Amino acid sequence: MHDIKMLTSRALVRGLKSGFWRPLSSTSGVQVAHGKDMSFDVLDCSVPQYNNRLDTPLSDVPFVRNLNSEQKQLKEKENGPWTKLTKEEIIALYRLTYELTYPEMRRGSSEWKTVLGGVFIFLGFSGMLVWWQRIFVFGEVPHTLSDEWVEKQTQRMIDMRINPVGGFAYHWDYVKKQWK
Amino acid sequence: MFRAVVRLSTSGVRSLARTRPCFSAPLASRCYSHAKVETDEEFDARWVTYFSKPDIDAWELKKGMNTLIGYDLVPEPKILDSALRACRRLNDLASAIRILEAVKDKSGPHKDIYPYLIQELQPTLTELGISTPEDLGMDKL
């Protein structure tokens, strides 16, 4: 009765923990930390979307659609000779149309560290459970596994010549009375 | 009875083999496609013409560029020159820089292609005022 109560509370704790841990690698905080853009709630899939793709350099729509007044002025300046633009203006123009540069698209994230850490934590937790089980749940091993029983058993097996060709008694030297 | 069947079937097979054109003349005609293969020069000329259209619109530039990057090749400088001039006509400096980034990425492990392209395109880049991603520090993270 007492054991069942302990087991159910253990299961409850484990259930709570997995419910708590499951959204951990996909929460927006962690995704922003790993470098994803989470500034929108719902994508409108009925209109062309912006996307960062290595195999599609020019996206269907520019990244920033709604330009404020100074961005509009910059766009006007783009209509003139490009030699007149400063470096900062050129970078600003690029960032208006494209979110990520190619190196930024190719950069990996550190998500694997979170995943590996989570895996090890769960493995450790399982190890804890197994250890607790070993101490508090399992009884003693049978007496036939004790050292003196195994000794007598081995001697009996040698006397009976168990597997004399390729197995057990083959490895016993009956002349020198020792293992080969 | 079996011998008769075999005799009939072998003669049938022989006549079948005779009517198939592919095996009639040894090595003269293989079963290859008869489509004409486009030479490299024709390919380049076609793409230069595509981007040289005076009233090219933004969609055509995007479509052309995305298709070109989809091919298993790095475009010749003359194609890129034509594409960069199309960007100038469309007043799109960001796309011009994007094209340069894309061909650098397309070269993959062959690191000597991109410097060659920039060297060939340098007159156009200075004329139009396009800075390379390296000039802008955008090739680093």
TrEMBL record, chain A:
One of the record's GO cellular component terms: respiratory chain complex IV
Domain of life: Eukaryota
Membrane topology: Single-pass membrane protein
Pathway noted in the entry: Energy metabolism; oxidative phosphorylation
CDD domains listed in its UniProt record: Cyt_c_Oxidase_IV (cd00922)
Keyword terms of this UniProt record: Membrane, Mitochondrion, Mitochondrion inner membrane, Transmembrane, Transmembrane helix
Residues annotated as transmembrane: 114-132
GO biological process terms held by the UniProt record: mitochondrial electron transport, cytochrome c to oxygen
Statement: the UniProt record of this protein carries the keyword Glycosyltransferase: no
Cellular compartments annotated: Mitochondrion inner membrane
Chief site of localization: mitochondrion
Keyword Acyltransferase listed: no
InterPro entries in the cross-refs: Cyt_c_oxidase_su4 (IPR013288), Cyt_c_oxidase_su4_fam (IPR004203), Cyt_c_oxidase_su4_sf (IPR036639)
Primary role: Component of the cytochrome c oxidase, the last enzyme in the mitochondrial electron transport chain which drives oxidative phosphorylation.
Family per similarity comment: Belongs to the cytochrome c oxidase IV family.
Subunit structure as annotated in this protein's UniProt entry: Component of the cytochrome c oxidase (complex IV, CIV), a multisubunit enzyme composed of 14 subunits. The complex is composed of a catalytic core of 3 subunits MT-CO1, MT-CO2 and MT-CO3, encoded in the mitochondrial DNA, and 11 supernumerary subunits COX4I, COX5A, COX5B, COX6A, COX6B, COX6C, COX7A, COX7B, COX7C, COX8 and NDUFA4, which are encoded in the nuclear genome.
The name this protein goes by in its record: Cytochrome c oxidase subunit 4
From TrEMBL, chain B:
Keyword Transmembrane helix applies: no
Subcellular localization: Mitochondrion inner membrane
Protein topology in the membrane: Peripheral membrane protein
CC annotations in GO: mitochondrial inner membrane; respiratory chain complex IV
Any one Gene Ontology molecular-function term assigned to this protein's record: metal ion binding
Keywords: Acetylation, Heme, Iron, Membrane, Metal-binding, Mitochondrion, Mitochondrion inner membrane, Phosphoprotein, Transit peptide, Ubl conjugation
Pathway(s) per entry: Energy metabolism; oxidative phosphorylation
InterPro entries (UniProt xref): Cyt_c_oxidase_su5A/6, Cyt_c_oxidase_su5A/6_sf
Single GO BP term: mitochondrial electron transport, cytochrome c to oxygen
Stored SUPFAM superfamilies: Cytochrome c oxidase subunit E
Keyword Heme assigned: yes
Main location: mitochondrion
Family: Belongs to the cytochrome c oxidase subunit 5A family.
Subunit note: Component of the cytochrome c oxidase (complex IV, CIV), a multisubunit enzyme composed of a catalytic core of 3 subunits and several supernumerary subunits. The complex exists as a monomer or a dimer and forms supercomplexes (SCs) in the inner mitochondrial membrane with ubiquinol-cytochrome c oxidoreductase (cytochrome b-c1 complex, complex III, CIII).
PANTHER family: CYTOCHROME C OXIDASE POLYPEPTIDE, CYTOCHROME C OXIDASE SUBUNIT 5A, MITOCHONDRIAL
Name of the protein: Cytochrome c oxidase subunit 5A, mitochondrial
Organism, as annotated: Coregonus suidteri
